[in-house]
């Protein structure tokens, strides 16, 4: 019963996250499209690649390992010791922000001040914003561990919308401010994000609802670092696990942001091309952020709650094993079909989407080829997110340590392949290298899942096998829409574009009907959960 309740809460968290993100991101999508008409490609490149990489690296290295470790514990833990451990992310964030800020200012190539003014201010502001965001880390982990369904999404969505509105207003009124605009917007984003969590917990902690739910924190002061006379200051089991995850997270960050590191440190493409690449990358990853990331984060918590880390399948409760295997199989099928849909229809509609979103700046040159390749990459992202979500929820400390060596070799290989593919095929090479990287990670995770379930009667990896009729529907739809793009898109006027869109809609409808007829078990799972 506890496992089923966890599944229902997790499914609600994932679906609510996806729906709310679509709503709020639709607003930011329009606002970002507006700002593209006012900014230079070089300024976009510095903000979207160089400064965002500084912020994301500092935040990721400071908190990712702690998140993984602290979300894996049981409900009976000492939350005071866990909260003390989570506050260590703040001094770590200060260290990484200062260290990386020095590298960004004194080691890397500085953009031309005449083209991108106020670069130094931008570096300081983005580093400071990383530290501000880490102040909310204990609140975030508490919210995730107790499956607060809408808090996370509403907090992130409000902060993103606030950031976009401020950016649009300042870009239109004071375009000459350059990086001052993005510095203020970034600081507003992290401040609003943290304040949403603080305000929510200030209202929730000690309330009748908190008492009813047996919430372990009874006063806000308990969310600050606390010295305990009769207990250890830190949860050392989680601290040791965090250290193992930290070594892994360092490598994972290189793999996740590898193309940005290659751009930043090796200067393989200029700031203008970096800007176009990042816009296409963000456009292509919309589905990954809207759907795949909420599923991965939510069901990581589910698998960590239902199955015990480090135990083989025979030592687990068999009812929980059956539920976890069934959920994993259907999750794999769900994300696979979403990924296939994006890959098939994304190929024929990439140029049209870029032309509508950003005009000729994006739809000419390498933009369409970038988005077509990214449509394929989305399929790899979809499968990898779920397989790694299960794998990381079940790995013991020793397995995590062994996996770190795999990640080390993969990181080095990925960086080398990125460099050579970019020299050979420009910015498209980054996406091809990412496909290779994700393919290797999927192979490792599926091997782990196969080994985990081989002594049982469950085979969740069959979720990666869609029905033959559905595969045929995808092939036919891909061929028809590709020919439609050739004849009707995108320089033949809006009448031809509407014909192309209509043909795509008919093919999508036919594929969806085929899906409903052949994948009845999956449809029932989605409807019921």
Automatic annotation (TrEMBL):
In the UniProt record, which is one GO cellular component term?
Answer: endoplasmic reticulum membrane
- Give GO BP annotations, semicolon-separated: dolichol-linked oligosaccharide biosynthetic process; glycolipid translocation
What metabolic or biological pathway is this protein involved in? Protein modification; protein glycosylation
Q: Which domain of life is it from?
A: Eukaryota
Q: How does this protein lie in the membrane?
A: Multi-pass membrane protein
The keyword Iron appears for this protein: no
Pfam families from the UniProt entry: Rft-1 (PF04506)
Keywords per UniProt: Endoplasmic reticulum, Membrane, Transmembrane, Transmembrane helix
**Family listed:** Belongs to the RFT1 family.
Say what the protein does.
Intramembrane glycolipid transporter that operates in the biosynthetic pathway of dolichol-linked oligosaccharides, the glycan precursors employed in protein asparagine (N)-glycosylation. The sequential addition of sugars to dolichol pyrophosphate produces dolichol-linked oligosaccharides containing fourteen sugars, including two GlcNAcs, nine mannoses and three glucoses. Once assembled, the oligosaccharide is transferred from the lipid to nascent proteins by oligosaccharyltransferases.
User: Which protein, by its recorded name, is this?
Assistant: Protein RFT1 homolog
Q: Which organism is it from?
A: Odontophorus gujanensis (marbled wood quail)
């Amino acid at each position: 019963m506890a496992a089923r309740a966890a599944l229902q809460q997790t499914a609600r968290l994932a679906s609510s996250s996806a729906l709310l993100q679509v709503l709020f991101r639709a607003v930011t999508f329009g606002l970002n499209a507006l700002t593209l008409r006012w900014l230079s490609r070089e300024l976009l490149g510095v903000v979207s690649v160089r400064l965002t990489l500084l912020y994301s690296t500092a935040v990721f290295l400071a908190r990712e390992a702690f998140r993984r470790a602290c979300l894996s514990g049981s409900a009976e833990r000492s939350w005071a010791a866990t909260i003390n451990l989570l506050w260590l992310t703040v001094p770590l964030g200060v260290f990484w922000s200062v260290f990386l800020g020095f590298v960004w200012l004194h080691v890397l190539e500085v953009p031309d001040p005449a083209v991108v003014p106020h670069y130094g201010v931008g570096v300081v502001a983005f580093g400071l914003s990383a530290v501000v965001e880490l102040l909310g880390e204990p609140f975030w982990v508490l919210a995730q561990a107790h499956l607060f369904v809408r808090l996370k999404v509403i907090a992130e969505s409000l902060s993103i919308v606030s950031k976009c509105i401020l950016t649009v207003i300042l870009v239109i009124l004071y375009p000459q401010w350059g990086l001052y605009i993005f510095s203020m917007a970034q600081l507003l984003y992290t401040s609003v994000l943290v304040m949403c969590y603080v305000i929510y917990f200030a209202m929730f902690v000690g309330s009748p609802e908190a008492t009813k739910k047996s919430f372990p924190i009874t006063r806000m002061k308990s969310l600050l670092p606390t010295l305990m006379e009769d207990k250890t200051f830190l949860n050392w089991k989680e601290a040791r696990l965090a250290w193992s995850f930290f070594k892994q997270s360092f490598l994972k960050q290189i793999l996740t942001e590898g193309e940005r590191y290659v751009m930043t440190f090796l200067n393989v493409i200029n700031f203008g091309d970096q800007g176009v690449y990042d816009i296409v990358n963000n456009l292509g990853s919309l589905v990954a952020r809207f759907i795949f990331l909420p599923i991965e984060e939510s069901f990581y918590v589910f698998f960590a709650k239902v199955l015990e880390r480090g135990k083989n399948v025979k030592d687990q409760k068999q009812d929980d094993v059956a539920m976890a295997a069934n959920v994993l199989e259907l999750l794999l099928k769900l994300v696979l079909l979403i990924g296939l849909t994006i890959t098939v229809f994304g190929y024929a509609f990439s140029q049209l989407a870029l032309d509508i979103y950003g005009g000729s700046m994006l739809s000419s040159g390498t933009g369409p080829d970038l988005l077509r390749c990214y449509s394929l990459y989305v399929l790899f992202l979809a499968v990898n997110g779920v397989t790694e979500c299960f794998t990381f929820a079940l790995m013991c400390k020793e397995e995590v340590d062994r996996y770190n060596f795999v990640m080390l070799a993969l990181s080095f290989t990925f960086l080398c392949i990125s460099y050579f593919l970019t020299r050979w095929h420009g910015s498209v090479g980054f996406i091809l290298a990412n496909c290779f990287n994700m393919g290797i990670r999927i192979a490792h995770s599926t091997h782990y899942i196969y080994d985990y379930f081989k002594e049982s009667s469950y085979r969740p990896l069959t979720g990666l096998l869609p029905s033959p009729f559905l595969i045929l529907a995808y092939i036919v739809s891909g061929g028809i829409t590709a020919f439609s793009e050739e004849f009707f898109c995108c320089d033949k006027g809006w009448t031809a574009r509407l014909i192309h869109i209509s043909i795509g809609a008919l093919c999508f409808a036919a594929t969806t009907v085929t899906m409903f007829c052949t994948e009845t078990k999956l449809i029932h799972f989605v409807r019921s959960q």
